[in-house]
Amino acid sequence: MAKNDFLRDVWYYALPGGSLKRGAMVAKTLLGEPIVFARSREGKVFALRNICPHRAVPLSYGRFDGQEIECCYHGWRFDQTGRCKEIPALIEGDSLDLKRFQVKQYPVREVQGNIWIYMASNERKALPATDMEVPVVPFFGDKSYQLVVTLHFPCYLDHAIIGLMDPAHISFVHRSWWWKSGRSLFEEVKAFDPSPYGFTMRRHKIPNVALGYRLIGGGAPETEISFRLPGVRIEHVSTEHHNVCNLTAVTPLSETETEVTTLVYWTTRWITAIKPLIKPFVRAFLDQDRQVVIKQQEGLKYDPTLLLIRDADTQARWYYQLKAEFTRAAAEGRPFNNPVKTQILRWRS
């Protein structure tokens, strides 16, 4: 798939709900589009194209009273649907129809503390065009995350996603006393099944348990890991007494910048007490992926042919196949047909 040809008609991760307070605005660029997110006085989140149709000043530079956004240039006011409600320069009795002036509105949903945005392929038909649902982590119902870390990766979306799902890099990129020593490689044998718009590694006991997993407590941990388009990885780790879920979402900001957000949910109370100590380790773990991607950019400047080898890179192959099928299905106006088949994969890591 060509660069900058991001998937459309899908839900992308936008931002953690906790970063958007009532009566506040946050400006972001997603898929190359300027967007302003705002939360009303009542707590409802909405998103508009961050450009005033009058003189193109970003609306985020204006004022938000908890109901309407006022442009800082001429005071044009827009409601939560993007409709123009007032133009102060007009004299009383002016017949200008304000309905002519509309800022694009984006569908958004807030689930489990996360704000998702639907990026449509057709501005005239912005409502969800597929049956794809907003991702949710299992077991935690409507509870919000307890820890969040966001990092910017200076790369195209595909390289960030493939780097994060790559099973063979762990012993080399994540060499840490608190995770992997890198001294030994073990054979991994995992079963995979197709799942909605992606694939899932079947639940299994975690061999050679790293210190990070031992912190959960409550017995031998088991894990299930799923991936789905456009770039969401969910890992559910459980023991006899506890559950921990990690949701990692990859969102393209532009052709050269990608945002990776990892959120953690847990039931282990004592982990909450030491959360300030855990967060730096989570950030360090994610930054190890970021640093190797930065190094990768040096080689990518020469546009080399990239290799995908057998089982260790099969998940990367599936990712490209999933993207291609999603695009074809949309173009042909037919249901998505998951190309992933049940399979056993083997690699060393």
TrEMBL record:
<dbReference type="GO" id="GO:0046872">
    <property type="term" value="F:metal ion binding"/>
</dbReference>
<dbReference type="InterPro" id="IPR036922">
    <property type="entry name" value="Rieske_2Fe-2S_sf"/>
</dbReference>
<dbReference type="InterPro" id="IPR050584">
    <property type="entry name" value="Cholesterol_7-desaturase"/>
</dbReference>
<keyword id="KW-0479">Metal-binding</keyword>
<dbReference type="GO" id="GO:0004497">
    <property type="term" value="F:monooxygenase activity"/>
</dbReference>
<dbReference type="Pfam" id="PF19112">
    <property type="entry name" value="VanA_C"/>
</dbReference>
<dbReference type="InterPro" id="IPR017941">
    <property type="entry name" value="Rieske_2Fe-2S"/>
</dbReference>
<keyword id="KW-0411">Iron-sulfur</keyword>
<keyword id="KW-0408">Iron</keyword>
<dbReference type="GO" id="GO:0051537">
    <property type="term" value="F:2 iron, 2 sulfur cluster binding"/>
</dbReference>
<protein>
    <submittedName>
        <fullName>2Fe-2S ferredoxin</fullName>
    </submittedName>
</protein>
<keyword id="KW-0001">2Fe-2S</keyword>
<feature type="domain" description="Rieske">
    <location>
        <begin position="12"/>
        <end position="117"/>
    </location>
</feature>
<dbReference type="Pfam" id="PF00355">
    <property type="entry name" value="Rieske"/>
</dbReference>
<keyword id="KW-0560">Oxidoreductase</keyword>
<dbReference type="GO" id="GO:0016705">
    <property type="term" value="F:oxidoreductase activity, acting on paired donors, with incorporation or reduction of molecular oxygen"/>
</dbReference>
<dbReference type="InterPro" id="IPR044043">
    <property type="entry name" value="VanA_C_cat"/>
</dbReference>
